[in-house]
Model the fold of this input.
Amino acid sequence: MPVYLGLDASTQSLTASLIRAGDDGRETIAEHALSFDDNFPEFGTAKGVIRGDAPGVVGAPPLLWVTALDRMMGELVARWPREMAELAAVSGSAQQHGSVYLHARGLARLSSINPREPLAVQLADGFSRLLSPVWMDSSTTSECLEIERGVGGRDVLARRTGSRAFERFTGPQIRAFAKRDPRGYQDTARIHLVSSFMASLLAGADAPIEYGDGSGMNLMDVSTRMWWPAAVEATAPGLAEKLPPIQASWLPAGFLGTYWQQRFGVPAARVIPWSGDNPCSLVGSGLVREGRLAISLGTSDTVCGMMRDFRLHDSGIGYVSASPTGEYMGTTTFMNGSLARERVRDMYGLDWARFSAALASTPAGNRGALMLPWFDPEITPHVSAPGVRRVGLDPSDVGANVRAIVEGQMMAMANHTRWMSPGTSVIHATGGASGNRAVLQVMADVFNADVVRSRTGNSAALGAALRAFHADRQANGRPMSWDQVIEGFAEPQPDWRFTPEPEAVRIYRDLREKYASAEREALASPSSTT
Ligand code: XUL
Done:
């Protein structure tokens, strides 16, 4: 049976999911992760990123991703040599919106990589921008307004590209680069997403942008799935020539390049375009139909759901993408995810076990105490000047503060995502913090929905492997429905089902209103406390 590889280049790590799948069965062979900070300290990242001197600037060195991919492929072959020798196709998932800037030399190098030298050595001088902006960057508010004005307004942009302009989206980031470093921009021959850059490295060729991830750029028409010229022109001069083509998620981008074949002895497996981590996670959680939500509790907390039809929310809080399964999906992102939970954990000198115990030993609703958890600038709702707000919450009460951050995050998610999937009865939780039972119980109670946990915490890497399987079948003339593709992989974990407790649901129904009005008040008066 053929073997498929999914790689997830997320904010803090590169993770692999190796699966075997075919008509005769399904099996997860291995999951393997490399943390960026721990394995590649020479790049000086903290939690996978480097914060700039100017406010809101956050990036990562693209050479880090190159180095990590090389190391990962070497380790996979060393540990699972027989399985890697049977590799039929590989795809990937990457943190969304981040972009990689290559000058002409770097672009040419993609297709002439020498198998005798490490990849990073050969690409070291290939970038026209040494720090790639990533999704945590919030420094482009004025560029967002300029782009919206340039296409005829926020609503026009949202209707065509699926979202109003967001600071982290690639278009505003490209515009900021063109304004801040016009020389560097001019010297740029190709702008890739992290996803299409990684696929290019694997294919040894300039790979296309997959339309699910392409939707997070404010540059693509989500209905036609082509670049939208008005947005491209409003973003930066000469941008059309710098963008790769857009391609359907399942059309192969090529085969593993000679670098990988000769250096590691892997076969010429198909390379399937990489997508974003949220679209891949949706597939890896088995949500290939409308009606259920996936909540990923990772560096960011995100709420995603498949949509049969294009449906926008008036306030522009979330965004709509083309989905790798061919329909649409909605995504709402919260910047203050795991890093905010970690801040509270560290603030009170706890470890995760004691954090969970504190959560479990405090009452639902926290006796009315609230926290607006804006440790960093927030995406949803839009908060540019960070600052944690406490309402009726004593900062010295450890248990109450632990409960307040978890409840605050869940209430914000529930309040801001009603538009995506009204009446959701089942939520699939994934990501690191989904391993915490007390957190999932709060989620069930706040959303008034059953919460199940994906069998893997690495649903994005698994989703990428499943996309490779799906595309390979298609390319071999033996297509499979998405329901068949996910069968045997995406079933929730037994014993991890959390049902809402009626008394807690009643408490949160009122508290969510109180939270929403505290949020409105805080947004109206930007002074802050931490
Ligand atoms: C999605 C988003 C984040 C990143 C994290 O819009 O910004 O979830 O994809 O990797």
